[in-house]
Amino acid sequence: MKFLDLFAGIGGFRLGMESAGHECVGFCEIDKFARASYKAIHNTENEVEMHDITTISDEFIRSIGSVDVICGGFPCQAFSIAGKRRGFEDTRGTLFFEIARFASILRPRYLFLENVKGLLNHEGGATFETILRSLDGIGYDVEWQVLNSKDYVPQNRERVFIVGHLRGERTRKIFPFEKNDRTLTEVQGQQIFANTLTTRTEAQSTGTYIAERKQYEEKIAIPVLTPDRVEKRQNGRRFKDDGEEMFTLTAQDRHGVAILQKPRGYNEGGLHDISPTLSSHSWHENNLLSISGVYTNDSQRFNRGVLPGLSRTLKASKSDAGIYDGFQIRKLTPRECWRLQGFPDWAFDRASQVNSDSQLYKQAGNSVTMPVIADIAKRL
């Protein structure tokens, strides 16, 4: 089917749709940096290109011609719990009605939309009811489902996916569904993830795609949120445990990993509620101490009974994240963030030729998770 890519970003919808055999006929993206990445990644020759969607006239929309699907991850900041949740009072919230305008003119068989989970309960559900009533008014029956990216890639990212069906068309119901049991390296027969991870088990065991490894020395990567800022959290947490997926990528938060050595020596190492016995050969730097959700391996500090003043010991000179001597925290690279959204390395390589690292981080956080899009797209 032919699709139109609105609020296109760097093309997460497009890669997913194309992996399912659909064809893009045009795209719209206002951000010049995201648009540069999009055009570097995708062959947009002879396609309709639009920038500011609010300036597109009805006559121009009619000139686009026949499309079967309109895709759009319309701006979510107005509905996100991470923002002020002003909804339709925010100009970004009103951009949904631009999708409705395009749909009322082009009359595609499907609408395929994405937004944050918070859209469902914003203003006690009134915002989502407004969206449903708007789509009903232009002739679309709507279904939706909340899906989590962690079922596809090692990133916790809940999003609501909305499919509108043009009334009277012989379209089939999409939701609900569970992700098929299959390896992550196979999407519609294409080896999209061949260079990003080997198996889901490996990805889960590290929390990211990038378990640090040296010859003869394995390490574990623990996801860390905003290693340079103490106040930022997702659900009150800064660290995740071994086996958990990465925090939700956003355009604002910074993400990192704490690199831990695997157990060795006389002390087997691991996660502890109290410090293990110290000795000259205990290898205590391999142990991770968890106290009230804060992690440290400074066993001597806890043996000295400093626990009541823990919050005052987390100094920037030591580490904002509460990781002490023996552990290294590093930021995720832009490539790793793109991998966490399911983008193949060749796409990142093209985008990195036209954009700075700061823009590449932002673009990953604002993107959709491509393998989730692909899984829905093949069901359309």
How does the SSE layout of this entry go?
Blueprint: E1 2-6, H1 12-19, E2 23-28, H2 32-41, E3 48-50, H3 58-63, E4 69-72, H4 96-106, E5 110-116, H5 126-137, E6 140-148, E7 158-166, H6 200-206, E8 213-214, E9 217-225, E10 255-261, E11 270-272, E12 287-291, E13 294-296, H7 299-303, H8 310-313, E14 328-331, H9 334-340, H10 345-352, H11 357-366, H12 370-377
Parallel strand pairs: 1-2, 1-4, 2-3, 4-5, 11-12
Antiparallel strand pairs: 5-7, 6-7, 8-9, 9-10, 10-14, 12-13
Structural write-up:
This protein has 380 residues and is α/β, with parallel strands linked by helices. It has helices at residues 12-19, 32-41, 58-63, 96-106, 126-137, 200-206, 299-303, 310-313, 334-340, 345-352, 357-366, 370-377; strands at 2-6, 23-28, 48-50, 69-72, 110-116, 140-148, 158-166, 213-214, 217-225, 255-261, 270-272, 287-291, 294-296, 328-331. The chain has a seven-stranded mixed β-sheet with strand order 3-2-1-4-5-7-6, with helices on both faces. Helix 1 (12-19) links the parallel strand 1 (2-6) and strand 2 (23-28). It starts with a strand and ends with a helix.
